[in-house]
Structures are given as structure tokens and as C-alpha cells.
Design goal:
380 residues, Jelly Rolls, 60s Ribosomal Protein L30, Chain: A, four-stranded antiparallel sheet, 13% helix
């Protein structure tokens, strides 16, 4: 998993003059990460571009109402552009330039155009796959008609290639088997959608023989005996953490577990299990500490992720306002815990939904009530 540094944050709404100069010109183009979703805005700028873009789209006038982003691949690979927008028609250009001065190359007409579509929409990108080369900068320009405003959701899906031209996978096989004739236990960590391997931090505890912290996508260990209640924790940059608690590991010639991780994308909602509060209060009980530490670790491992902490309660009484206030205080208490443990408050917000979004509208037992009484995080 590449660690790509965000040069600037792409915001959901553009409200200030300072923000208007962020990614709406070539000089303000933003270096983005691949396989991450961005929601950008056309501001409805007026006027025609008479310098940088004029001439790249034959017989087409080009407005200043544009969005500029760029990507610098670390390895060769194939790119697929995914986007959604309500803007009916726009121009789209991808330039290939040297890393040093892309804007100067584009303005002087020295930039190589590797993809251009005039009067297009997002649906035309569905089957387009582009080959990118490491060591170059690729600038993406989305140009709407002047005065047109609207959002555009953009995601660059990138599939890296190795030296032999095959797809470069984020894989690391760690084989610690010392006796092949003895029982073997293996763990395989995959992306839940693509089923591709993910190099992860794997922590195994409560097993004695297997206990340890390992870095691998595929881990192989000798196993001496059956384990009734192991604990396995898996973390990977760009993915939600996964914990297997009281996990039984049978013993056979070769026992394996496949662990599927969910990629972090804007809009992803994850439930925080094992967060406990005192009845009717915003007081976190001590047994919640392990899960809170896991959330802290997730935020540290993914420094570009912002979250909204959402509190829910199970309350079948008429105290709707009290329930909403209590759920928000509980969410805020989790936010305060993270701040106290080194996470910037600017990356987080807290909301309370009370009992307005139950999983079970008419809970029939304690398990269903407990499911309603929950804390979730929304990736923003």
C-alpha cells in the first residue's frame, strides 16, 4: 500500500476566497491519492482560458471554470477514472509532463495530451483504461461551461505493474514454519472487494505458541495444539481494522483463516463494538478501553482520514430530546478520549441521533436493544 502525502485537503464545500484558489487553476493543482474518493465543486467561474488550455481542444472554446488535480505514480500501471456528476457536459484532458514544471509545459504547448474528450460526461469514462509511467506527472483537468456550478465525485483507480508487466500486488508472505510435518496455521489478509492480498500488521494473542506481532499478507506458523479463544487483530493503511475475538483455531495438517478488510472510502460507516457506557450517562466503562485504543491506532495509521462519531441509543420512551442529547454526549466523550490520546480534534466531529435511526424499530429482546444502542464512525 503506497503512502501518498496529501498536499492539500479537498473539501466538500467551497465557502471562502482562499479556498477558491485551491484546485481551480494549474498553479493550484492538488496532488491526490489513488483509490480514494474526492467530492469537488465547479464554482461557476466566468471568462475564457486564453493561455494554458486554449488549443488543446480543437474548435472548442475553453472556460476558466475548471478543476485541476494531479498524480505522480511511483510505479508503472493502468489507470481507470471513475466519476459521477450532474453537470451535463464538460471537457476533460489528461496531460503527461515532467514533474518539475507541469504548468509551464502546458502553457507553452509542450505537454503531451494522453487523453482528451470534449463535451463529455462521466459515463464515457467507464471503459477507458490508460497506461501511466513512473517518473512523470499526470495533470487532470475537468472543464465545465462558464457560470455552471455543481459537484463532481472523482476516484482514480490505479493498478500497478511490476517489472514483468504483471500487476504489482501489496503482498508479503511470511513463512515461519520450522517443521513441515507438524500442523500448520496460516492467515491470509485480502481486500474484501478485489480479493487481492494486503500487507498488514497482524497481532496474535492468547495462544502462547503463536503470540506475536507480524507484518504480512500471508502468514504461516507451526501450531502445536487446538486453541479455543485466540485474539487476532489486523491493521492495514487505508483499511478499517478487523478483530477476531475468542477465535477458535482447530488443529489439522493445515488450518487457515482468510480475513477480509474493508477499504476506507468516504461514506463508509463502521460500528464500534464493545463500547460500553454507564446506564443513562455519558461515562465510558473501563471494559471499553481495548476498543478505544484500536480506534486511536486506526486514526494514527490513517492520518488523512477524518471521521464523524455517531451516537445511538435504544429508548422506547417519549424522551426523544433527552435521548438525542445523551447520544451526542457519548459520541463527544469518545472524541475527547481520542484528543487526549494525540488525535487532532480538527479531524473529528460528534453527532447524536438518539433513537431516530434504530437497527430494530421494535426490538423484541435484549440483543436487539443492544444492537440499537451503538456507536458508529462515518468516514468523511
Amino acid at each position: 500500500m503506497k503512502r501518498v502525502v496529501f498536499i492539500a485537503f479537498l473539501l466538500l464545500a467551497i465557502n471562502s476566497i482562499a479556498q477558491k484558489t485551491s484546485y481551480f487553476s494549474c498553479s493550484g493543482q492538488v496532488l491526490v491519492s489513488v483509490n480514494a474518493n474526492y467530492k469537488l465543486n465547479f464554482l461557476g467561474l466566468k471568462g475564457q482560458d486564453k493561455t494554458k488550455l486554449n488549443g488543446y481542444l480543437p474548435n472548442e472554446s475553453v472556460s476558466k471554470n475548471a478543476i485541476w488535480i494531479c498524480y505522480e505514480p511511483e510505479n508503472d500501471g493502468d489507470l481507470k477514472v471513475n466519476c459521477k456528476t450532474l453537470v451535463d457536459s464538460m471537457h476533460f484532458v489528461i496531460f503527461k509532463t515532467d514533474v518539475s514544471d507541469a504548468c509551464q509545459d502546458i502553457q507553452s504547448k509542450k505537454a503531451q495530451v494522453i487523453f482528451v474528450k470534449a463535451n463529455t460526461n462521466c459515463s464515457e469514462f467507464e471503459n477507458a483504461k490508460l497506461e501511466l509511467k513512473a517518473g512523470f506527472k499526470y495533470t487532470f483537468v475537468f472543464i465545465a461551461k462558464e457560470k455552471i456550478k455543481g459537484n463532481i465525485d472523482i476516484q482514480l483507480d490505479y493498478f500497478e505493474k511490476g517489472e514483468n508487466g504483471g500487476e504489482l500486488l501489496d503482498t508479503l508472505s511470511l513463512n515461519l514454519v520450522y517443521a513441515r510435518d507438524n500442523p500448520i496455521y496460516s492467515i491470509h489478509v485480502l481486500d474484501e472487494i478485489t480479493k487481492k492480498p494486503i500487507k498488514s500488521r497482524i497481532v496474535i494473542s492468547n495462544t502462547v505458541d503463536l503470540d506475536g506481532t507480524y507484518t504480512a499478507s500471508d502468514l504461516f506458523l507451526n501450531q502445536k495444539k487446538q486453541i479455543k479463544e485466540s485474539i487476532i487483530k489486523v491493521d492495514a493503511e487505508g483499511y478499517l481494522s478487523k478483530d477476531l475475538l475468542k477465535h477458535k483455531i482447530a488443529i489439522s495438517k493445515h488450518t487457515s483463516d482468510t480475513i477480509l478488510l474493508t477499504a476506507v472510502k468516504r461514506g463508509t460507516v463502521a460500528k464500534l463494538d464493545e463500547i460500553y457506557f454507564a446506564a443513562g450517562l455519558a461515562v465510558i466503562l473501563e471494559e471499553s478501553d481495548p476498543k478505544l485504543r484500536r480506534l486511536r491506532d486506526f486514526m494514527i495509521l490513517n492520518p488523512t482520514v477524518n471521521i464523524e462519531i455517531q451516537g445511538h441509543v435504544n429508548d422506547d420512551s417519549k424522551k426523544g430530546l433527552f435521548s438525542k442529547r445523551l447520544s451526542k454526549r457519548r459520541a463527544k466523550r469518545i472524541l475527547n478520549y481520542l484528543v487526549e490520546n494525540g488525535i487532532s480534534e480538527s479531524r473529528m466531529s460528534a453527532v447524536g441521533f438518539g433513537n431516530s435511526k434504530p437497527i430494530y424499530k421494535n426490538p423484541k429482546n435484549d440483543d436487539e436493544k443492544e444492537a440499537n444502542r451503538r456507536v458508529e464512525i462515518l468516514i468523511k
